[in-house]
Amino acid sequence: MRRKRALPLAALLLCTPALAGTVPTSAAAAAAPAAPAGPLRILLTNDDGYNAPGIRLMFQRLTAAGHDVTIVAPLTNQSGAGTKLMSGSTVKVEHPEPRVWAVDGTPGDSVSFGLAAVFGDRAPDLVVSGTNLGPNVAALATHSGTVGGAIAAVERGVPAIAVSTGELAVPVPEQIFNAMRPTNDFTVKLIDRLRAQARNGRLLPEGVGLNVNHPVVGADGTGTARGASVTTQDPQPGLAAEYTDNGDGTWKVGVGLVTAPDRKGGDVEAVRADKVSVAPISPDWNTGTAEFAKVATLLGGLRP
After folding, report:
1. Does 240 map to a domain?
2. Confidence bin at 38 (pLDDT 50/70/90)
3. Total domains present in the chain
4. Cβ neighbours of 31 (radius 10 Å)
5. In Å, how far from its chain's centre is CA 128?
6. pLDDT band, residue 36 (cuts 50/70/90)
């Protein structure tokens, strides 16, 4: 679905050895509209809630890097909210401290409010969503509120990066918390790369965001990733719900890991290899041209 976008973006991201291999610079970024040369104005969101450790650590790291950061994130944990937007006629918003807004809604609601109200005078240069506690690879990305927050920004024309830490395994929270620091360090390097390649233009091509997944490296999670790969989203489910009948009209719901081969070049393969996965994402659900042609042939001549 996104292969035609992934190739030029791979060139954009990987043309300096500091992140990975050596590939020629993409021409797409150079043609993008102009953006500020000074510190970036960043809207920071997530799906774990405005006071979660991941978003607070990211706020500290981005601020230390010199960026102008404002948190606009859900009031409560909204994990798994995907791209959901609330349909109420009012929304509760708290402003508990300077540069922090807590929206009683989903990550998409938070970004929508942030762009319309907090940044109503001028759109931010970038939306960062994370750092999420746990991975958002494979099918997890499809249902992720972290990714959903980034998509809400991209569909409104604002460049966005979703950031997560973890892998498809039984999570060890302490390791993931430790790994958030190298995750955030990588995010700062990634933003620096995008700025350098953009040459004061757009940080990312129009309609494209990034889904970043950082592995947990080392026994305590503080290790350095072995590199970075521009990937596609692995189609495997990753997790599956398990249901047990309680016998009273209710069912107990559990979650189990699904074992499946990793797709070559996919996000799961990269993270398993202790590499950072950087997957280009898009707010539309269009298939690629080959898949479109197959369906058109399949349905040729169909009439109401």
Report:
1. no
2. confident
3. 1
4. 10
5. 8
6. low
Q: Which two tokens stand for residue 178?
A: 């430790």
Range of the domain at 14: 3-234+261-298
Report residue 95 as tokens: 């402003």
Question: Sign of dihedral through CA atoms 4, 18, 149, 176?
Answer: positive
For position 13, which CATH number holds?
Answer: 3.40.1210.10
pLDDT of 13? 52
pLDDT, tens only, 267-304:
999 999 999 999 999 999 998 899 999 999 999 999 99
Residue 245 resides in a domain: no
3-state secondary structure the chain: CCHHHHHHHHHHHHCCCCCCCCCCCCHHHHCCCCCCCCCCEEEEECCCCCCCHHHHHHHHHHHHCCCEEEEEEECCCCCCCCCCCCCCCCCCEEEEECCEEEECCCHHHHHHHHHHHHCCCCCCCEEEEEEEEECCCHHHHHHCHHHHHHHHHHCCCCCEEEEEECCCCCCCHHHHHHHHHHHHHHHHHHHHHHHHHHCCCCCCCCCCEEEEEECCCCCCCCCCCCCEEECECCCCCCEEEEEEECCCCCEEEEEEECCCCCCCCEHHHHHHCCCEEEEEECCCCCCCHHHHHHHHHHCCCCCC
Specify if 148 maps to a domain: yes
Single pTM value for the model: 0.88
Query: Could you give phi then psi for residue 253, rounded to 5 degrees?
Result: -110, 125
121-141 pLDDT, tens per residue?
A: 999 999 999 999 999 999 999
Three-state SS sequence of 51-82? CCHHHHHHHHHHHHCCCEEEEEEECCCCCCCC
Which of 190, 78, 209, 191 lies closest to 145 in space, CA to CA? 78
Structural domain includes residue 255: no
